[in-house]
Structure of TetR/AcrR family transcriptional regulator:
Amino acid sequence: MGKPDAGTPRERYRAQVREEIKKYAWEQIATAGASALSLNAIAKQIGMSGPALYRYFANRDELITELIKDAYRSLADILQDRAEAGAGLDGLAHALREWALADPQRYFLVYGTPVPGYHAPADTTRITAEIMAVILDACTAGQPPVAPPSPLETHLDDHRVWARQHPAPPSALRRALAFWTRLHGVLSLELAGHFDGMGFDPARLYADEIEGVTGH
Amino acid sequence: MGKPDAGTPRERYRAQVREEIKKYAWEQIATAGASALSLNAIAKQIGMSGPALYRYFANRDELITELIKDAYRSLADILQDRAEAGAGLDGLAHALREWALADPQRYFLVYGTPVPGYHAPADTTRITAEIMAVILDACTAGQPPVAPPSPLETHLDDHRVWARQHPAPPSALRRALAFWTRLHGVLSLELAGHFDGMGFDPARLYADEIEGVTGH
DNA sequence: AGCCGTGAGTTAGAACTTCTAACGAACACG
DNA sequence: CGTGTTCGTTAGAAGTTCTAACTCACGGCT
């Protein structure tokens, strides 16, 4: 007994078509990138003519925003699942890489080049907070703070609005940021193809950066 | 006396118009991103009608490729200049950040989301080799290799096609990669606005990452 | 059971885009 | 002073997003 897919028949049909639209949208994005996404092409694939899609999404941007939200959501879910399964910082890091490699364009939808005017909706900022909380948990669990905080760590401790009540010590704040920025650095360059033809194995560089963050 | 702008009058005029096209193209990219670049709009700004631009660029992609090449070139020039002026690894890092902040969309043109099909022309890979050489120089000059190489460092030493005859020791190879990936990690997240509303100062995080790479 | 309003899908069309084709005119060169 | 290359033009094809107006069928209510 799956979830009863609550709602009126109309609502259920509507949700179903929305999902089908998004399915073809993902296919297009995976093969040609988000900028090449064409509503007309999607409509043709589904079998209805052009403007019909505007019953389901106000415009192209709203569809893309929805896809970005779904991408964020799937990343947050995976990280939360792994964390609940007892994964440490390195487990989360590997989960992140698997998620990214599974669909590079999905990664770029979240962490890639932003459109200058675009402002993320409130939902996504809430999801990033969820992700940050998982990382902060893992960073706090890592090791007790022993050394006196560095200047940057005290700065982070002074401006911890982004940690949202999380009781992580200054060193954990720093490590969470390192986790995010360093892994993103390796990952985004790899996915963008900047390591192509360089000879070395990106996975080993990634693993080494993980060690650097977790403290060997 | 500046360079005489060699060539026939036709060639000089042609080069001049090409530059004007690129100028307006950069303006559009800076304000709306590369995906919003419109050849028609550029033509209108210059004062000629649409298809005239196709005398100067075969198509939209060729114009963008040209802009990417210019962006790469300007970054390489800046880093080489700073290196010749005696800048160390930290000097190069700050130059990189200044270059990125001066025009975020230019940075994304080089290091941002790639179009799945796109393959960089041979020119740009030569320019990346130039950039890598400058960084490797600075990494080698840093400090003598004392400790035995880590597993990753020996791996990099075994696959040093990307270093192109550069006599950098394994530790310098590792540091060059850290320079690239870690600084790109912080920088790209900052430019993409992912730090917005988080409270802390990205410049301090960047400076701290520099210290991590240079070895305090 | 039957009405009937809401919402889905249609076509037409406006305003864009890139890019090709054919034409005229201006310019540099022999 | 011709002459040919090249530049810029207009026309138009094929694509895009998105609006407007119309039909029609489905689902809820009496």
